[in-house]
Amino acid sequence: MKRIFLNLKAFSLITLLGLAASCSSDDDNTGVVGPEPEEARMITIAAARMGDNPGDGNGGTLIYSVTSAEAKDPSVSIEPFDNGFIVPSNRTARLQASEDGSTIFNISYAGDTGGNYTKYDVQGGQNFEQIGSAISIAPYVGTAPRWIKLFDGDQTGAAVYASTEHQFDDNGTPADESDDTYLRTDVTLGVVTLDLVNSAIKNFEETNVALPADLEAQGFFIGRTDMPTLNAAGDKLYIGARLDKVDPETTERDRNFDPLESITIVLDYPSLLNPEVIMSGVGKGNTSGYRSINAFEYNGAVYQANQGDPQGSHILRIGSDNEYDDSYVFNLDDALGVDGAYILAWRPAANGKAVVAYRHEGSAEGVAGAQGFFALVNLEARTAQQITEIPYDPDFYLFQYQGFAVDGNEIYVTQAPVGENGNIYVIDTETGAVTQGAELVNVEGSHFIGAF
């Protein structure tokens, strides 16, 4: 079994120098200069160490990189828990990668360093060299920010938060405010954009976001925001949202309400002003996702997953008019022939075919809850098929999954049950072929959270 511990870029440089030295001008009189070899695409594997409980990922994050060829090689063994680079973060780091895999972006989550942004040059193995200085976005969005790298050529990141305050009328006396009548919950949306190239703050705005008055009177409000995504024109920012509810009579949290239609907040970009709320006529439930990017631009529209839909997760479409396109109906229950599909994470390739991580009512209960499967999805044909070549294990934890590495039409994923070894799998989204790649060596209670 191969174990990869060397600096791959340095190795490539030494190899090329050696070849140049062995081929003098006396040996080559053709005068023809061949094309320079392409630098290997790097694939970074992220691993989350156990904190107090198996699968919680609260013991920190480690990363380790290999070439795409090594990632596909089942004789290669990757041991990030023993040999990986420790990413600064008190809990599970929030990672993003450049489109070519050469750079890793991180914002630390919680603790003394929470909110610190750093980026690293991917140099192979455990070698990640910090580029520039760190910058904190904590003054804008706190020490546990929800952030995403926008798809604008690795130029910009965006982090968001929502703060809430219940509003009442003044019917009660100063001595008995319990007589005050609940009116609505005021929601302040904060958005900061980050210059990923120069490690600087681009813009920060706070703005109030309202729902239709009849919903607010019932106690509904936007309780979580996440997963900002640029539209194709680059002039609107879509922000996923989760609706929460209080009982207007008591202002206590109501956790038993029927999910409403899925919503998205639309802001002008880059000003981050003029918020509007759009509502789907197709899907219900949340659009805020969890750890992985939840919405992607493709072919002029933005495709967005929802979670907690009583009819099973949908992939929804927002058109170029910045409204939900309700003519597009793509229900994962129907496409897969399951009940209660729940999209945990997903990622499309440039051809409009995607890999979706999901669970459903048939998922077995594992050490970290009912977990899931992978499916190959076609956004245009609205079809989905389980990827049966990737083994299912009840202890395979996907809820905290963060990253899919995309290289052309190929998507790289990790599969390993909590505390057990597994493998990288590479899906050719065009043909559906699946390659079992390098072994992932695990440790007790820990798990892998993706490829970048």
Low-confidence stretches: 5-36
SS class: mainly beta
Mean pLDDT: 91
What's the count of strands?
Answer: 32
Strand content: 35-45%
What's the shape? globular
Looking across the biggest beta sheet, what order are the strands in? 1-4-31-30-29-28
The major pleated sheet works out as: 6 strands, mixed
- Ends apart, CA distance between termini: 23 Å
Our Rg estimate from Cα atoms comes to: 24 Å
Count every helix, treating DSSP H or I runs of 4 or more residues as helices.
6
Helix content: under 10%
Write structural notes for this entry.
The longest helix has 15 residues, at 8-22. This protein starts with a strand and ends with a strand. The chain is built from 6 helices and 32 strands. Helix content is 8%, strand content 42%. The chain has a domain at 133-328. The model is unreliable at 5-36 (pLDDT under 50). With 452 residues, it is mainly beta.
Which key terms come to mind for this protein?
Lipoprotein; mainly beta; signal; 452 residues; five-stranded antiparallel sheet; six-stranded mixed sheet
